[in-house]
Every structure is written in structure tokens, then in C-alpha cells.
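Hello,

Our lab assistant flagged a job as stuck in the queue for most of the afternoon. It eventually completed. Since we weren't sure the result was trustworthy after the delay, we are filing this so someone can double-check. Below is the sequence as submitted and the structure that was eventually returned. Let us know if re-running is recommended.
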Amino acid sequence: MSRIGKMPVPIPAKTEVEIKGSDITVKGPKGTLTRELHPAMQVAVEDREILVKRPSDNKEHRALHGLTRALIHNMVEGVTKGYKRELLMVGVGYRAEVRERSLVMYLGYSHPIIFIPPEGVFVSVMPKESKITVEGIDKELVGQTAAKIRSFRKPEPYKGKGVRYIDEKVRIKAGKTAG
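-- returned structure --
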């Protein structure tokens, strides 16, 4: 058995789970998420817990077992607590601001970069700390949006300038030596 897949997903108070065929809908205080799961996986709600069962010990079913449980857990966690990723801009003159619903970044290029986050993802900026916060209820979408913002100017290995995650460690290389 998959150690992750066999663990039940607890349903917190003020959260509703609805299963129709292979579709699952989770409603909570922060919003609603819907996802289509693999039709082979059997998902059931029992005693305020979601249980995921697999039909056989087939290699594909074993792989889908843990994945399905993790996806459902992320949905439940998202609608109750939400997800947040923080990015840090390191570099002289690097700054960002939020205009209407778009993020405008000045990252050392000759032009500003305008990024419009997808629906359900909210971006805020702390100007003094050069910190960008990406928040939302869908873990995949929050991570994907943060990765896209980071991709506009990845941290370079010689001075460490660029956009990085708050907890990311950038290894600095030694430059050329005179001699």
C-alpha cells in the first residue's frame, strides 16, 4: 500500500466535499475548487474523512493512489487555509508595484515587465523589502505563478542578483582572478 494514499484526508469544519463520478468539488471558507480525478481511483467520504482506494496493485494504480490523495488533500488545505509563496528581488534598482490587477516589475531591462496573474491568484508587493507575495487557494496555480514571476530574472550565480524564493539559497561562484 502507498503510505500517502492510505492516509485519510480529514474534512475540517465549514468545509463541504461533493463527489460525482470522477469529479470532486471542495467548498470552504476561502472558495471552491473542482477537479476531475482519474476514473480508476475510488474516492469515498466516510465520517468527515475522504478515503482513496485503488482497484488493483497494478503499477499505474499504485502511482495514482498517492497522487490522488495528495491532490485531494491540497484542495481541502487550499479552501480552508490557502497557499502563499514569497519572492525576493535582489539587485540595485529592482522594484515592483501592483497597478490595478497587474504586477509591474523593473528588473534591469530597458522596459518594465507587466504580468497579469491568472484568476484566483492575488499578488501583493512590500516595497521596502522588495518582496512579492503570491496567494491563492489552488496550490498548483500559486506555485506556477510564482515560478513564472521568478523566470523573468532568475538569480545569477556571480552576484546573486535576480528574483528568488524567500527560502532559496543561491550559491555564489568565484569570479575571474587577476594574475
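-- support follow-up --
The delay was a queue issue, not a problem with the job. The result is valid. The radius of gyration is 21 Å. The chain has a mean pLDDT of 92.
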